[in-house]
Design brief:
Layout (H helix, E strand, L loop, with lengths): L5 E7 L3 H11 L12 E8 L7 H5 L5 E6 L7 H10 L4 E5 L4 E3 L3 H11 L3 E4 L2 E4 L4 H4 L6 H10 L13 E3 L17 E4 H6 L15 H10 L5 E4 L5 E3 L12 H19 L11 E2 L8 H14 L1
Parallel strand pairs: 1-2, 1-4, 2-3, 6-10, 7-11, 10-12
Antiparallel strand pairs: 4-9, 5-11, 6-9, 7-8
Length: 305
Amino acid sequence: MTAPLLSLVVVVYDMPEQAARTLHTLSARYQRGVAENDYEIVVVENASPRLLGEERARAAGGNVRYFLRDTDERSPVFAVNFGANQARGATLGVLVDGARLLTPGVVRLALLVGRAAPGAVLSVPGYHLGSELQQKSVDSGYDLATESALLQRIRFPEDGYRLFEIACFSGSCAAGFFLPYAESNCVVVPRRLFEELGGYDEGFVRAGGGYSNLDFYRRVLERDDVTLFVTPGEGTFHQLHGGITTGGTRGKEREDLMASFVEEYRAVRGVPYEVPKRRGMLLGEIPESARRFVVESAEKWAARS
């Protein structure tokens, strides 16, 4: 088979319903202005009692490749690197959390950036479904039924841009589009760059990967040969699934967990974590539904001036 231009690696663990929706939003039936043979979706599922499975994964399209790993690893970094090794595209996108719904223009922009320049990187901002961060909203009664009702209200997946209507910025992207933010849950890089960086650092072994995604994003942006593009009109939207940092742990247990992530980062890198300093060039169209996030981003930018 002819190699696709773009490979998207999606890591899945114990989230079959959420992952199935994520894969639909990556499909050529949902994404606009692309064809299946432009890209491939590499699904890497770590074994759990609740499997997505190959049949359900491949239902998203003929460009899906599925791999099941029988492992007791608690961190997704190994699955990311495994998926990257299977990928055939010259451009590589990583979704370390398979519970993220995407807007319909992400793949088109990823393909565009892949052709733009040797060091072009695409950073898609992250959001949480609901009116506040899910690690907070679960304490107020936000649950799967609440989220399902929100998705029904916007008639998802008829128009994926309506996801902006029922979401808030994720904590790591709270600075908005015009200031540096901490990570992307859909980051697209040249495969060459991924390999030169050694992929995701397998020193991050804590459950959920700790700061591994933030670490990879920071290391990408520290490169002088990278041109960063940010998509104010596209996003990834976190679905509730009992994720370890987004509602799966609470109170003192969550505080201790986050402290352990901080210490693990310091042990791996030898320095405390800091948000990257780099800002990106804005790319893509902005739908009406995302306007309030543009306003919020501008207000935060003005407050820093």
